[in-house]
Amino acid sequence: MMSYFTEANSAETVNARMDPATNPRLAVIMASLVRHLHAFAKDVTLTQEEWETAIAFLTRTGQMCSGERQEFILLSDVLGLSMLVDAINNRRPEGATENTVFGPFHVPDAPIREMGANISLDGKGESCLFEGRVLDLDGQPVEGACVDVWSDNADGYYDVQQPGIQPRWNNRGRFFTGPDGAYAFRGIKPVSYPIPDDGPVGQMLGQLGRHPYRPAHMHYLVTAPGFQKLVTHTFVGGDDYLASDAVFGVKTTLVAPFEPVTSGDTAWRSPFDFVLVRE
Ligand code: BEZ
Ligand code: FE
């Protein structure tokens, strides 16, 4: 029996139009989205004006996007959706290093550097030795793993945010492990920084009484043949923003030690092992 659209039957009426045979997975996703969207509008008794505000917000979000800026991913990040999708798709056994959000500042094909090399090219910040091993779940070293790292500089900006100000490839590099699975590089003790907040997502955070800061972290993309890709960070323990990361990326197991070093020209040492899962 055909029925016209009413407030009461709204979601069912929309979903009944779909032909699940055309694209079965899309039909499942869209039917659930329509159900939740309609339930949400009913739950808050959405006004016409609020609906228009939302449309204007989404329009500005799209207009902010460019080759260098992805405001929709930023929106997903601050709503916790990026971390949820990451969690759903990276369930790992006990003992494996946990994933966290990738973020927009990775640049592929960073320079391959000698083990132990310094990735901080602008001479700013407190120097820090990052070292550890890439292991499998049995504690065996993983040879030939690529440890791709990136961080902000001491002013809280990635090199790609300051072309012409920071040296190209500042605080970035790739390191390949040998038979012992060990990696080591020098960088700076990272600092906390705000996510790009000069667009609609930043305005929304302001309206919600939320700050845009991420706690200090070093990014890692660890890959090795035969192992699942690991996208993660290590966080600086004690950071003021650990409990209120704007993008919800913090996990207890990713808070790394940062130990003061008294000899030599390195101020800090941060040991951390990465444990990969076989494909
Ligand atoms: C980052 O850590 O680089 C980042 C993650 C999510 C949004 C913005 C920045
Ligand atoms: Fe970051």
Q: Helix count?
A: 6
CATH topology of the largest domain: Protocatechuate 3,4-Dioxygenase, subunit A
CATH superfamily of the largest domain: Aromatic compound dioxygenase
Distinct small molecules: benzoic acid, fe (iii) ion
What gap, in angstroms, lies between the N and C termini?
Answer: 49 Å
What composes the largest sheet?
5 strands, mixed
Number of domains: 2
Specify the overall morphology. Answer: globular
Mean pLDDT: 96
Please estimate the helix content. Answer: 25-40%
| Order of SSEs | HHHHHEEEEEHEEEEEEE
Report the structural category: alpha/beta
Strands, helices and their partners?
Layout: H1 10-16, H2 24-44, H3 48-64, H4 71-78, H5 81-89, E1 127-136, E2 146-150, E3 172-176, E4 182-188, E5 193-194, H6 200-207, E6 213-214, E7 217-223, E8 230-236, E9 255-256, E10 259-260, E11 268-271, E12 274-276
Parallel strand pairs: 1-11, 1-12, 8-9
Antiparallel strand pairs: 1-4, 2-3, 2-7, 5-6, 7-8, 10-11
Bound molecules: benzoic acid and fe (iii) ion (FE).
Fe (iii) ion binds next to strand 7.
Verbal overview:
By secondary structure, the protein is α/β, with parallel strands linked by helices. The protein has helices spanning 10-16, 24-44, 48-64, 71-78, 81-89, 200-207, and strands spanning 127-136, 146-150, 172-176, 182-188, 193-194, 213-214, 217-223, 230-236, 255-256, 259-260, 268-271, 274-276. It folds into two domains: 1-46; 78-275, Aromatic compound dioxygenase (Protocatechuate 3,4-Dioxygenase, subunit A, Sandwich), CATH 2.60.130.10. Helices cover 25% and strands 20% of the residues. Strands 1, 4, 10, 11 and 12 form a five-stranded mixed beta sheet that branches. Strands 3-2-7-8-9 form a five-stranded mixed beta sheet, with no helix packed on it. Bound molecules: benzoic acid and fe (iii) ion. Benzoic acid binds next to helix 4. Residues 103, 105, 214, 217, 219 line the site of fe (iii) ion (FE).
